[in-house]
Design a protein that fits this description.
about 180 residues; alpha/beta; Rossmann fold; about 10% strand; binds adenosine-5'-triphosphate; binds (3R,4S,5R)-3,4,5-trihydroxycyclohex-1-ENE-1-carboxylic acid; binds magnesium ion; metal-binding; ATP binding; transferase; shikimate kinase activity
């Protein structure tokens, strides 16, 4: 299959849960006049229930299978902004297909800043259920290597959603000009 030209590739946002992939992805899509796709929302529509209930009813493996199927399909679409779930890059096949077909931004956030956000996440994110803070920190650390597969990293500490989105759009425009 021919490689999609850089400017037409979909933009994919990765990173640990709660770093802002969904929120910032929506803002980037709006600024670029592109459609926004949130993979968790696509899965939620398919099952008619949120990820937490899918995990509880069918198990994580079923969620991951659908996640892989949907991402593999979406990555081939042009001109989208796609936010992945925080655990999607645990699957090597997902890493490989995203690297080959899209432009990947890793939204990074230090643990110190992330832990202030836990109240926003604890009730809805199934992988946080039943874990104490030490175990969550361990998960945060264990997950970092999977996000090393990216094209560009953005440290989001103390950055407003709009600031991060503007940074991503500016760096894309620069890359599109440089590699046109
Ligand atoms: N830059 C930011 N500054 C402050 N709050 C933020 C920022 N980005 C996101 N948030 C808030 O953090 C929470 C989690 O954001 P969001 O749902 O976008 O994360 P996510 O990376 O998509 O998580 P998941 O991997 O679980 O889908 C939301 O309440 C959102 O409003
Ligand atoms: O980090 C994770 O493993 C997850 C993050 C969310 O985006 C959802 O994809 C789901 O709750 C699993
Ligand atoms: Mg999200």
């Amino acid at each position: 299959m021919n490689k999609i030209p850089l400017k037409e590739q979909s933009i994919v946002l990765i990173g640990f849960m709660g770093v802002g992939k969904t929120t910032i992805g929506q803002a980037v899509a709006q600024k670029l006049y592109r459609d926004f796709i949130d993979i968790d929302e696509v899965i939620e529509r398919r099952f008619q229930m949120p990820p937490k209930d899918i995990f509880a009813k069918y198990g994580e493996a079923v969620f991951r299978q659908h996640e892989k199927e949907i991402i593999s399909e979406m990555c081939h679409k042009k001109l989208k902004v796609i936010s992945l779930g925080g655990g999607a890059f645990l699957q090597k096949e997902i890493q490989d297909i995203c690297l080959a077909t899209t432009t990947i931004f890793f939204l990074d956030l230090t643990w110190d800043k992330w832990k202030d956000r836990i109240g926003l996440l604890i009730d809805s994110r199934p992988v946080l259920q039943g874990k104490n803070m030490d175990e969550i920190k361990q998960l945060f650390d264990d997950r970092q290597p999977i996000y090393e597969q990216h094209h560009s990293r953005v440290l989001t500490d103390d950055q407003e959603v709009e600031e991060v989105a503007d940074y991503i759009v500016d760096s894309l425009k620069l890359a599109w000009e440089l590699y046109a």
